[in-house]
Design a protein that fits this description.
Elements lengths: L1 H43 L19 E6 L2 E4 L4 E9 L5 E10 L4 E7 L7 E8 L4 E7 L10 E10 L10 E3 L10 E4 L8 E5 L2 E4 L1
Parallel strand pairs: 1-11, 2-12
Antiparallel strand pairs: 1-3, 3-8, 4-7, 4-9, 4-10, 5-8, 6-7
């Protein structure tokens, strides 16, 4: 009889221990799952800007460029012709660009800058100075901006004034790499990083 009572007590004690062990396992599993969810959320939450700093820079693969089309133009004195300003964002989202151009003021005259078909929809600067042979175009587009290899910035109409032939570009971008004073391409990184790496102007021949 005593053995039977002892066995019942032992069974009861073991059941309590098993229940406590299960409870502990459940709690530990729940904590582990919660921690996993928090870590995943912290790593992949796109709105988390905790580690974005002023010193963040564009990746080395960013090779954005501005270029003119056509790169070679042949016209007669008195002809009017157009040149497109194009942008290659090199796979980046771009929110603004400045295209500053210099041209041979004795040979050609800038008539009008058309941005009606531009991939950018905000205008900050659109200026022609024929006395100095300068053109300034600055346009923008809100986040996420544009991403393209051949986006249209603007179309410029010129008039051929006199005969000219040049072995080098006589319609070119004012550009110094890294400078914000000249032509620029601004990536959508919230700090205004200029990723313009190269430009290509045009050779204008007038007969």
């Amino acid at each position: 009889m005593d053995n039977e009572i002892d066995n019942k007590k032992l069974i009861t004690t073991l059941k309590k221990r098993v229940s406590y062990l299960r409870f502990t396992i459940y709690v530990f599993t729940a904590i582990l799952a919660l921690m996993t969810v928090l870590v995943v959320y912290w790593l992949y939450n796109p709105s988390d800007d905790t580690f974005e700093t002023y010193y963040s820079t564009a990746t080395e693969s960013a090779r954005a460029s501005l270029y003119l089309s056509p790169k070679d133009g042949y016209y007669g004195v008195g002809d009017e012709f157009t040149v497109d300003v194009l942008i290659n964002t090199a796979g980046n989202n771009v929110v603004a660009t400045a295209a500053y151009l210099s041209f041979n003021k004795d040979a050609i005259q800038a008539l009008v800058i058309d941005t009606s078909k531009s991939d950018f929809d905000m205008q900050a600067e659109k200026e022609i100075n024929n006395e100095q042979g300068k053109i300034k175009i600055t346009l923008g587009r809100p986040t996420p901006g544009i991403k393209t290899h051949a986006g249209l910035v603007a179309t410029i109409r010129f008039k051929a004034l006199k005969k000219t032939s040049s072995p080098i570009e006589n319609l070119s971008f004012d550009f110094t790499q890294g400078s914000s004073l000249y032509s620029t391409i601004i990536v959508d990184d919230k700090i205004g990083t200029n990723i313009l790496k190269a430009t290509r102007g045009a050779k204008i021949f007038i007969n």
